[in-house]
Every structure is written in structure tokens, then in C-alpha cells.
Specification:
This protein has 495 residues and is of the alpha/beta class. The chain has helices at residues 2-9, 44-50, 74-80, 92-101, 119-128, 147-153, 185-188, 194-206, 220-228, 245-250, 296-308, 320-333, 353-357, 367-379, 391-396, 414-422, 432-439, 441-446, and strands at 11-21, 24-34, 37-43, 55-65, 67-72, 84-85, 107-112, 133-137, 142-145, 163-168, 171-178, 209-214, 235-241, 262-270, 313-317, 341-344, 362-365, 400-403, 464-467, 482-487, 490-494. The chain has an eight-stranded parallel beta sheet with strand order 5-12-13-14-15-16-17-18. Helix 10 (245-250) links the parallel strand 13 (235-241) and strand 14 (262-270). The protein binds zinc ion. Zinc ion (ZN) is lined by residues 71, 73, 215, 406.
Amino acid sequence: MFGIKKKEKNRVLFSADYVYVNGTHKRKYGVLTENGRIIETGKREIIREQFPFTKEVKFDGALYPGFIDSHIHLNMLAKTFEGTDARNFATTNEIKKVASSIDGEEVHIFNFDFNKATENEWELLFNNTNTPLIVISSDEHTVFVNRALLNKYEIAVKEYEGGVVAKRNGKFIGILKDRAIENVRFIIDKPASDESIRKAINYLLSMGITGITNFDYEIFDKLEKADKNKELKIRTFQGIKCKLLDDAIKNSVKTGQGGTFFRIGPVKCFLDGSLGSQTALMNEKVPFNGMQTLTEEEFQQIVKKANGNGLQVAVHAIGSKAVDMALNAFSKSGKPEMRNRIEHMQFISEDDLSLIENTEFIASMQPAHYKYDKNLLQKYGLEDYPHAYDWAFLLSINKVVAFGSDAPVVPPNVPEGIYTAIFRENEKNITLKDAVRCYTENGARANFFEKEGGRIIRNMNADFTLLNKPLTEDFDSERIKTIATIIKGETVWKK
Ligand SMILES: [Zn+2]
């Protein structure tokens, strides 16, 4: 008797106007859960009749499987809570204002669009600001530091292969691109405070996100500790730095290890830079050179080693040549069951179409990058590139595409991402059902989580995102709001 009563206590019926089950919005539906797991779904009235005494949480709105953002930089996102967001800054004058309003300390500025300033302006900022200053572009592939910052840390700027140290008349003007960012990497990679990390996680939960792949390794220890103290509030699949592959293997670290909230994710490597900093590595003739960070041979060895030791690989490849290298390495040296991932995959060469069909991989893509990169595509004459940001093509040949944001590069806004993907022009639009799948089921698959989450069906975790209204084919992403975020049956965020 008592046993049954106790069980009843942990049973909760979640019901909502709409529940998203198997790609359709079910009206007046219910999801019966027990100890944070789904045990039944069906018409709310029918479940209610069968379980008249079960506690019910009744929602107005639409209940979705918890959204998974498969590409997050959690440390950088947390640090944006400590610095200044320059997304709306139009000139370097605004940077100067921020820098001069703070005395003595160090100023960090994020999300500045470097295309908005001239070399001359940077040179002035470099020499004429007294507060140590660091400015990071929204795609994090370009960084500006001033002389005061170099002095503070006694940095003698070095050249790096695969990087740019910007000079004017032979003199450094403060701009570092890609590998050259190594000069100040220790400043950028400093872990954010626990408080900022908490804020960042709370922000993600407020956006309806229940799970993330976090590629910022710097806060691994902090997140692991928070998890041990039962303080980690979002499911985190934690990436491992490529450089640490041998260490990881030595310590028998494997993808998927961990508990409810903190698990080992993929090993993260880079093959090229970004479009915004003109360092994406392309096969085609483009007005920039691109940058290659690993040779094909080196990367193949990494894939072989990682996969052979139970580690998934996630590789940053934006340009078509980088994507080609990733595909080759996965097909030659990868194990299909390790679900190797290509992060971004923004450009695909026509020559690679059959290689794509015949290679096992997961495409981890960010719809909002397309939205914010449109002007860059135009600038570099790439607006008619046949397979740019082409999740539609990849889905059409049954590839697993997992969506994410790359936050803080772009805001972690799932409805906006879905909107961008379904209203894409030039027949590259995908269905609402597919777009939702890329943020749920496919995200789960990319993180080896599909047996536990990503869908509202029996035996899955009760991870839900409650929106104020259902996403329909004609929704307005600005009117869609998250009302509650639920993980394992617990409400972890509420409006
Ligand atoms: Zn990233």
C-alpha cells in the first residue's frame, strides 16, 4: 500500500493545449510522468480518468520536447555577462567611451562587428586608450587589444602560421586574427565566474533550451563540480579540446560518460577559420585566402585515434575545402558508430556530393548564421553559391542535421532559428517538422541522447519546453515566448 502511495507521489501529469508528439500538435493532450520519466501520453481526459488522483500540472500553451542547442560556447556566453555587448555599436567611438568610463581595470567588449571600423580607427584606439582593452568579434575569429593591455600582461606579439597580426606602415595596430589570437588566448579563455556561468545557464533555460553541447573546455572543472553539488541546471554535453586528446585517452575518458546533467561530449578540432574574418578555407576561387589549421593527414590521425578510443569527433569546418577534408577523414579513418560531427558546414562543393552521400557524419549547423551572414555572402560574391548553409540538401538525402546557435556568436533563439530555416528562399526552405526535429530528436542523436530525450514518447525523460503558442507554418518568431523549461520533470525555469 505504502509503496504504491509513494510511487503516486512522484507521478505528475503534464497537460497543455497542445503537445508536440511525433511531428504533430496534439490538442488537449497529456503526458504522464513518473520520477521524471514519461510513462504514458494521450488525450488528457482519458489519462485523467485512469489516474484521477495524480498531481496535474496544467499549462496554457504548447509543450515541446526540450530544445537541444548542439553548439554553445558557455564560457564566452558567461563572459558576456561580465563585459559589454557591442552588438549595436556602430563605430569605435562607442568602444572608446566604454573604455574611458572605467579607470585602471580591464575592459572586455564582445560582439563588435570589425567590418565597421577602418585600420586608421583601430590604430588610434590601439595607441590612445589607457585602460587595458580587449574587443572580440561576434564570430570570435578576430580580436583587438590595445597597447595598455599588452603592457599589463607584458605580451610581445608573435606571428603565427594560420593567423594575421595586422600592421599599418609596419606597426601593429592591435588586430589579431585566428591563430594569431594565441597571443592573448590566456586572457580570452580565463574561466568566467561561477555567478556569470549561472546567469548564462539561466539565460539558456529562459530560451527553452534543456540541453547543450558546450565547446568551451575552460570551464570543464567548474561544470563538473557544479554537477557534483547538484547545482548544474542544464544538460551539458562537454567538448574536449583537440590538444588534450592524448590526455583524455590516457585517462580513459569516453564520449557519453557522466551522469544526468554532465556528460563527456566530442573532441573538438578546427580545420579552418570563419567567413567573417576571411579565413574560411574554400575550394573555389574567392576574394580571400582562407586558413588551414590542420593537415588532412594530421586530422585523419586524430579521427582514427579518437574514434578508436571511444571518442566522438566534432570538427569546425566552414569553407568547402575544410568540409572536404573533414569528410575524407571521416570516411577513411572514422567509425560510423562514433557519429562524427561537422560543425557549421557552411559551404559544400559540387564535387563532394557523392562523398557526402557515402560518408557517415552528423551536420551540426546554425540557421541564424545564415541570417546574420547574408551580407557577407553578398560581399564575397557567394550569394549564388549552390550549397551554402544547405541543411535542406543534407536533410533531403537523409543526413542527420542538428541545429544550434554558436552562442554568444548569435543569440540562442530556437524559434528564430526555426523561422530562418523554414522561410529560407531559393527552395532551401525546410518544413517546420524537420526544423523542430533538428533542435530535438537530431540534437539528441548528435549527443548520444536519443534513447533518453528529444521526443515526447514513453520512456523518454520529461524534458520539455513550454511555448506560449504552437509553432505553425506561418508563425511570427518574435511572438513566440518560452513560458517554462522542464528537465526530468522539474521546472528549472519559469516566466
Ligand atoms: Zn563555435
